[in-house]
Design a protein that fits this description.
The structure is a single chain. By secondary structure, this protein is mainly alpha-helical. The chain contains nine helices and no strands. It is elongated and about 90 Å long.
Length: 266
């Protein structure tokens, strides 16, 4: 079997992770028994979640916040592969080797991925290798910066959430101490409940929601950049006039040596 079979996208684990978090929360509720409803405190959730989002709006520009929301869909997408893109590079190299430049240009215009389309066009136009590398590496760097801003935002949310949970704890303790002299245990209990539950909300949001999302987005960026670098090398080999078989073997070797980061089967 050809080595390109190793480019099959691995199973998306986000669904299982979400199911695991839901299962954990269910176990906590089961352990609480009849007092499970005490874990639901709208005021405490508003302090933590609302305060976290408010702080985020202050810290980041609007376009970054919208970018954060759009990146959530990526959690359920399979990791991209470059099987088709490698075949396109080999096909273009074959056409160029047969001096079918017009057919090669027509094939390039069909390419959907802008990064690959630009690189192939530059190679076909005879642009120097150094310039091709400069242009495409700049594209890769912009990709890293754009996606890095998304993961950084979720990292910031993970830092804000426990701090806002502590704020809710302090508010609850102040209320409890204020009412301590009244001797009303119901009022004191409500204040203590807010004090404790906001800490729980902050820890849960930070470590079971925001931080895992940030890590997953960072891994997505690493995977995409690795694939883009493989395509870059394939484009450079095309520009240097290497044969289609040489391009295929070289790229296959890079993919195989990349291990799991390059999309090997899990």
């Amino acid at each position: 079997m050809h080595r390109l079979s190793s480019l099959r996208a691995p199973l998306n684990t986000a669904v299982f992770g979400i199911a695991g978090v839901a299962g954990l929360l269910w176990l906590i509720a089961e352990a609480a028994g009849d007092t499970a409803d005490q874990y639901w405190n709208p005021l405490g959730l508003l302090i933590v979640l609302g305060g976290t989002l408010a702080a985020t709006l202050i810290a980041f520009r609007g376009r970054h916040v919208w970018s954060m929301l759009s990146s959530l869909g990526a959690l359920f997408e399979r990791e991209p592969t470059i099987r088709d893109e490698i075949e396109i590079i080999v096909k273009v190299a074959t056409l160029v080797g047969r001096s079918n430049v017009r057919l090669a240009e027509a094939e390039i215009q069909k390419v959907e991925r802008p990064f690959l389309r630009l690189g192939l066009q530059l190679a076909l136009d005879g642009v120097p290798v150094e310039e091709i590398m400069h242009v495409l590496n700049w594209r890769i760097q912009k990709q890293v910066e754009r996606e890095g801003a998304q993961s950084k935002l979720f990292r910031t949310l993970a830092n804000f959430a426990p701090a806002l949970g502590m704020l809710g704890t302090l508010v609850g303790l102040v209320n409890m101490l204020t009412d301590l002299g009244s001797g009303d245990l119901d009022v004191i209990g409500r204040g203590l409940s807010i004090a404790l539950i906001t800490t729980v909300y902050g820890v849960v949001l930070a470590n079971l929601v925001f931080r895992p999302i940030a890590i997953r987005l960072e891994q997505r960026t690493v995977h995409r950049v690795a694939l883009m670098n493989v395509l870059l090398d394939g484009i450079i080999l095309l520009r240097l006039g290497r044969s289609p078989s040489t391009i295929r073997d070289t790229v296959d070797t890079m993919v195989a040596d990349g291990g799991d980061d390059m999309g090997r089967r899990s």
